[in-house]
Amino acid sequence: MIVGNKALSALFLLAASASSTQAFVPSASASASASNGVRQTASSSSSQLFSTIERVKVSPPPTVTGDDAAALFEDHVQKTYGRYPITLVSGKGCNLYDSDGKEYLDFVSGIATCALGHSNPELTAAVSAQMEQFHHISNLYFNTQQAQLATWLTDNSCADKVFFCNSGAEANEGAIKLARKHANDRGIDCPVIITAIQSFHGRTLTALTATAQPKYHAGFTYGGEMVPGFEYVPYNDIEALKAKVEEINTTPDAQGRKRGLAAILMEPLQGEGGIIPGNPEFFKAARQLADDSGALLMCDEVQIGMGRSGHLWGHQKLGVEPDVFTSAKALGGGVPIGAMMARGAAADVLTPGTHASTYGGNPLACAAGVAVAKYMADNDLLDNVEARGEQIAAGLVKIAEKYPNILGEVRGWGLLRGVVVKDDAGCTAGELVGDVMKEGLLLVPAGPSVVRFVPPLIVNEAQIDQALEMFEEAVAKRA
């Protein structure tokens, strides 16, 4: 190891010495490769190091057109998404435009994120003004934008305090850490969090463990196991939940350590799991079981929250108040921001040094959040969500009745609606979404058998009618 470090230091000194006297001269083979624009692929470590040292000057970003984007994605972007073959270049309101100039009615909203649509003047003005002032400072200091958004969130919910981060997964990670610390503070050695089968809580490792869908766990286990401390029950199954809580609270772990319920974490409406609304009785039972166990009830509001249900928060439709709930997506109208909110004693569990976020609550993201909040209040957006949601649901029911061999149940709340594609329909939800895209409507699947409608919260009556017409045209071609 000492020899290796000395050799590496010598190489760096050689490079520094060469640069101080004359240009570092590459080998003939390297020069030929560089002149032909060929990336160095030599297997020796010295060649790789040489190639790294040689790149002293930073190149500017390339100019990219709509025609170039797909090929550049293929070469330079990791393939974590299956993408539809269009390159979007601009948007206005509920419409998006591709590189060929084709117009699309956007009923995806960046997956429930662009609550105010695209290029919203108020949001644009707020973000632009904040950039001219300052956009980021450390959380070592106070800033007025974070204080303003936190106050609005607590004024409009059961929460007492807010922790800001950057995404829904991070917000849920924060909630999980809070629940574990709360349980540890009560003397529980092995705190357990219950989540629902077919849930979705994010892509980070612990949030993914909370996501009770084995297909997302494949390839990420250690010895076949994900992060310990999670148990799963069927969504809306009160008896299964009661039994699981009893088991956790009375059964020690394999080493004889004390187990106990830390939290019950549920989505008020399962989004990625197929647009399945929560049952009020189930959530009331969860609230009581958490209280009886000294545990926390936590709600993942990342997709259904910020007005998409017709209420500001999805749990308001279920008649319960959680101890902790999370938000992201629509909170910034498309500007990345997440929030984990807590009330009562839960709001004081995390202390300096126990949790943090570099970007969380930065002035730029919070200015966007304040702009979204102000627009929602000034324009009675929740009333529009209720009316337009009922319009979508009624229209989808009519189409499903007309094509019963293809479509089944219509479900959801507000402007998060789904329609089931039947198993023998001859197509998956994803394939039907591809068909509809050809008609000029953007939709998104929720699992393999549900087509999801998540338009911006500003969508109007005429646009709903247009979307339903295009959807029916695509379904008719499959009939």
Specify the structural class. alpha/beta
- Percentage beta strand: 15-25%
Task: List the total number of helices.
Answer: 16
Helical fraction equals: 40-55%
| Unreliable sequence segments | 1-45
Largest sheet: 7 strands, mixed
Shape: globular
How many strand elements?
17
Please name the defining characteristics of this protein:
479 residues, alpha/beta, 7-stranded mixed sheet, 16% strand, globular, disordered N terminus
Could you characterize what this model shows?
- It is built from 16 helices and 17 strands.
- With 479 residues, the protein is an alpha/beta fold.
- Strands 4-12-11-10-7-5-6 form a 7-stranded mixed beta sheet, sandwiched between helices.
- Residues 1-45 have low confidence and may be disordered.
Give a concise summary.
This protein has 479 residues and is α/β, with parallel strands linked by helices. 42% of the residues lie in helices and 16% in strands.
Would you spell out the secondary-structure blueprint of this structure?
Layout: H1 2-21, H2 28-35, H3 45-54, H4 66-76, E1 88-92, E2 95-98, E3 103-106, H5 109-112, H6 121-133, H7 144-155, E4 161-165, H8 168-185, E5 190-196, H9 205-210, H10 214-217, E6 230-233, H11 238-250, E7 259-266, E8 269-270, E9 276-277, H12 280-293, E10 296-300, E11 324-327, E12 338-342, H13 363-378, H14 381-402, E13 407-413, E14 416-421, H15 429-439, E15 441-442, E16 444-445, E17 450-453, H16 461-478
Helix pairs in contact: 6-13, 7-13, 11-12, 14-16, 15-16
